[in-house]
From TrEMBL:
It comes from Nocardiopsis coralli. It holds the Pfam family Heme_oxygenase. Keywords: Heme, Iron, Metal-binding. This is Biliverdin-producing heme oxygenase. InterPro entries: Haem_Oase, Haem_Oase-like, Haem_Oase-like_multi-hlx.
Length: 224
């Protein structure tokens, strides 16, 4: 559900937590990025119905993630990562209205893997470190590789820069490189115990796995 063009981590043990996080979850990141459904999308081989189904599953995932974010808005671990300009639900609603029409709410529902994913996200209201893991997996990936997906979607489905690809428009953040640098600074500033760091790493791996399972399910129906 997200794709990035990041370089692989180095083999040496990184000193910064953001680098350790990237290194420790690289295999899961690659599995999600190189999934057959994602490749069909990036190659322009995915039908519009498949793209629409992916947008619908994004909607349910972000609805849960952003609800948990609001619940944790005063928590010192989660709060630094919460920026109103990141929120994706309004953009996804505009995309779905464009793709399915005004009655889109009646036409979409979460798949079984998405329901599992959403249930895990909701549990993170009691685990702010775990929330950060899911926040990192979703937003940083969509801010990065999402820009390429947006370009491909516009070319494949004939969208303009507006409805259809609103989800990938992070213009309100300003400079995306500066945002990514700021995000990594927040990761490096986390005051985590050794056990807390291990828990965040485990949850990030799980977040990638849950995303990949959503893609696999979509691929069984929509991949050429």
């Amino acid at each position: 559900m997200s794709a990035t063009a990041a370089a692989p981590p180095t083999q040496q043990t990184p000193s910064l937590f953001s680098e350790r996080l990237k290194s420790a979850t690289w295999d899961e990141h690659e599995a999600a990025e190189q999934h057959g459904f994602t490749q069909a999308l990036l190659d322009g081989r995915l039908g519009r119905d498949g793209y629409t189904a992916m947008v619908a599953q994004h909607y349910f995932a972000y609805l849960a993630l952003e609800e948990v974010g609001r619940a944790l808005s005063d928590h010192p671990v989660a709060a630094p990562f919460l920026e109103p300009e990141l929120e994706r639900v309004p953009a996804l609603e505009r995309d779905l209205a464009h793709l399915l029409g005004d009655g889109w709410h009646r036409l979409v529902s979460p798949t079984a893997p998405t329901r599992t994913y959403v249930a895990r996200l909701q549990q993170m209201a009691d685990h702010p470190e775990g929330f950060v893991a899911h926040h990192y997996t979703r937003y940083l990936g969509d801010v990065s590789g999402g820009q390429f997906i947006s370009k491909v979607a516009r070319q494949t489905y004939g969208f303009d820069d507006g409805p259809g690809v609103c989800f990938y428009d992070f213009g309100a953040l300003g400079s995306l490189p500066k945002f990514r640098a700021r995000y990594k600074e927040h990761l490096d500033a986390l005051d985590l115990s050794e056990a807390g760091e291990r828990a965040l790493l485990r949850e990030t791996r799980l977040a990638y796995q849950l995303n990949t399972e959503v893609l696999a399910d979509l691929g069984r129906t929509h991949t050429p």
